[in-house]
Amino acid sequence: MKEDSDPCTGDIPLIIVEGFLSTSGSVAWSPLRRYVGGYENMLGDRKVMIASVGPVSSLHDRACELYYTIKGGTVDYGAEHARQSGHKRYGRHHPTGLYPIWSPSNPLHFLGHSIGGATIMKLQHLLSIGFFGQDTHTDMLLSVTTVSCPFRGTQIVYALGERTDSAPAVRPFSVGSILAKAVHVLSYISPLLPKALDLHADSRALSYQECSLTSFLRHLWRSSWAEGRDATPFDVTFEAADERDANDEGHCNPNTYYTSYTAFFTNRVSSENGKHSPPITNIRIPPLYFSARSIGSFDFESLVPQPSFLPDHRTALDDFALVKPGILRRASQDAELSEHYWANDGVVPVFSQWHPRECAETRCIHHESSPASAPLPSPRLRQHPEKRLLEPGVWNVYTLEDTHHLSVLPLWVGSSCQQNFWSDLGDFLNNIDSQQLDV
Ligand SMILES: [Zn+2]
Ligand SMILES: [Zn+2]
């Protein structure tokens, strides 16, 4: 690696993929880029592009939209997928892609917040099976960085309305049910709405221009989209995560650099079990406070089918008693779940934010946790001041304490936590680019 390499030389662009319900590309990010400077100052001259994908769509649909948003062309969800899911095969047409020369020899860096991270890993899977043609390859993803990503599901989806015994069915009058109705109303009137409320529902023909009033009312009564398997809510269940594992998804590509940032702001409430609860001071952010309580006290035994981590991957609770969430220690097979299944950032439990698949089934390094309020240098620099050679094909897991689901992304407020994160990311990407130039 070059010791004095120019960080502006050979900068490979960064694609940002947003999370659930986020159509904020033009709302939350762009004005801040223009008027505050914010995170862009941390990335030097690197080009940063925000990919707009369906805010409530399934991982498969989002990954397809991500691919064509970058490459350009008409979104093709695949004939078999469209048949199974009951929507059109083709979606939106992108006359110009964000980076049309994207290829194995012109790869990109990726950053995903929340389900944006899982979308990137679904894209990697589709590239690995040649879904977009034989000229593609997983090497098109030079790096993947995720923040608060529910790789392995999250129990919040059940609190919001998904039935614990028969997902993807949704409980009537639940938050999820109301949300589904709102999505259908917005989709129905979508031709009249501003771009910021773009739901990317083109393939589902839900607008008043394509959908009759009777069909619209039927969707309001019971949504075949929200209560189907081809939507975000089901994709973040533990059942769907297990299906992805069984489908051989989520493996590391040997030439891609992986980093995940794990956030949590809850504390263990008892030595008797691994349950967690947020400090009462966090009641100033009510939705996250109450969702963190719900996630922190969830009963995994109530799930049908049972998630794979319950019977087969139990770790000794006592072995985790003296360590903080984020520091992994393998333990015996016959005890209770560790507290990492309840520690959370208000939306996703810690264990799910690490990486896809069990630790034993992937390559990963879990670094020590660090307070989000710590001054610069950033966590990575503090732990690797010598700028060691980066290793691809391995998940580097970093934990940020006292950090909730929205502390780092997507809204830039200039906190020390955010400055640390972007500084760390800028340094990470520069190091990778330097290594690429040296090859
Ligand atoms: Zn679909
Ligand atoms: Zn791991």
Automatic annotation (TrEMBL):
Report the coiled-coil segments. none
InterPro entries membership:
AB_hydrolase_fold, Lip-like_C
Q: What is its main location?
A: secreted
One Gene Ontology biological process:
lipid metabolic process
Q: Name one GO molecular function term.
A: hydrolase activity
Q: List keywords of the entry alphabetically.
A: Hydrolase, Lipid metabolism, Secreted, Signal
Q: Where is the Lipase-like C-terminal domain?
A: 12-272
A single Gene Ontology CC annotation of this entry is: extracellular region
Question: The organism sits in which domain of life?
Answer: Eukaryota
Protein location: Secreted
Q: What is this protein called?
A: Alpha/beta-hydrolase
Tell me the organism.
Sanghuangporus baumii (Phellinus baumii)
